[in-house]
Amino acid sequence: MANEAVIIELMGQPKGRPVRFTVADGAGIEKGTLCKITDPRTAAATSADNDAYAGIANAEKVASDGSTSLGLWTCGIFDIKASAAVTAGEKVSISGANTVTKVAAADTLFSDVGVALETASTNEVIAIACGIYN
């Protein structure tokens, strides 16, 4: 996958407040991938607008390696690619595979990733505070 999030600073105790989720054995998930939550308490790589945000993969998950769990960071500041213009201070949500955009009134699931700490134009990478202000 491309555009994985990059750590600027992990917050909370323990650092980044990692939460362990179930993942499919056949799934390949790169470290830094924005993940969505599916039922039951299962994480998968984001792929579509308005995916329900779970966290950011804190390790690589190799496809078909026998592993069925993965830790996700839930609190920190990360560089993440914006798929559209975002203004500093706006809440951002999942807009596709490893990208965010400003939260829209039509967002129905908890897709909020965090708050933009910088203003972005389309396809620009900016600092996002995840799990700190939301």
Characterization of the model:
The chain has 134 residues and is mainly beta. Helices cover 0% and strands 42% of the residues. The protein has no helices and eleven strands. The protein has strands at residues 6-10, 19-22, 34-38, 42-45, 53-57, 69-73, 76-82, 91-96, 99-102, 112-116, 125-130. It is globular.
Search tags:
single chain, 134 residues, mainly beta, 2 domains, 5-stranded mixed β-barrel, 5-stranded antiparallel sheet, 11 strands
In short:
This protein is mainly beta. The protein has no helices and eleven strands. It is 0% helix and 42% strand.
What number of structural domains do the residues give? Answer: 2
Following the backbone from N to C, one meets helices and strands in this order, namely EEEEEEEEEEE
The percentage helix is: under 10%
| Average residue pLDDT | 93
- What integer value in Å does the Rg equal? 14 Å
Number of contiguous helices: 0
How many β-strand stretches? 11
Strands of the biggest beta sheet: in what spatial order?
7-9-8-10-11
Biggest sheet details: 5 strands, mixed, barrel
Extract low-pLDDT stretches. Answer: none
What structural category do the secondary elements indicate? mainly beta
- Bin the strand percentage: 35-45%
The rounded distance between the terminal residues' Cα atoms is 27 Å
- Looking at the structure, what is the overall shape? globular
